[in-house]
Amino acid sequence: MPGSEPPLLAVEALSVRFRAESGMLTAVDQLSFEVRRGETLAIVGESGSGKSVTSLALMRLLPPAPGCEVSGRVLFRPSGGGPPADLLALAPEGMRRVRGDRIAMVFQEPMTSLNPVHPIGEQIAEALVHHRGASRGAALEAAVRLLERVGIPEPRQRLASYPHQLSGGMRQRVMIAIALSCDPDVLIADEPTTALDVTIQAQILELLADLQRQSGMAVIFITHNLGVVAEIADRVLVLYAGRAMEQAQVLDLFDRPLNPYTTGLLASVPLLDPFAPVRQGLRAIPGNVPDPQRLPPGCAFHPRCTHAVAGRCDSAVPPAEPAGAGRLVRCLRWREIVEGALA
Amino acid sequence: MTGAPLLSVEDLEKWFPVRTAGLFARQARLRALDGVSLTVGRGEVVGVVGESGSGKTTLGRAVLRLLAPNAGRILFGGVDITNLSRRAMRPIRPRMQLVFQDPFASLNPRMTVRNIVGAPLVVHRRGDAAERAAAITEALELVGLPRGAAERYPHEFSGGQRQRIGIARALILRPDFLVADEPVSALDVSIQAQVVNLLLELQAHLGLAILFIAHDLAVVGHISDRIAVMYLGRIVEVGPTREVLARPQHPYTEALFAAAPVPDPRRRGQRALLAGDIPSPIDPPSGCAFRTRCRYAQPACAAGRPALREISPGHVTACIRDDLLLGPSPRGAPS
Ligand SMILES: Nc1ncnc2c1ncn2[C@@H]1O[C@H](COP(=O)(O)OP(=O)(O)O)[C@@H](O)[C@H]1O
Ligand SMILES: Nc1ncnc2c1ncn2[C@@H]1O[C@H](COP(=O)(O)OP(=O)(O)O)[C@@H](O)[C@H]1O
Ligand code: SF4
Ligand code: SF4
Ligand SMILES: [Mg+2]
Ligand SMILES: [Mg+2]
Question: Exposure of B322 by Cβ count < 10 A (0-12 exposed, 13-18 middle, 19+ buried)?
Answer without folding.
Answer: exposed
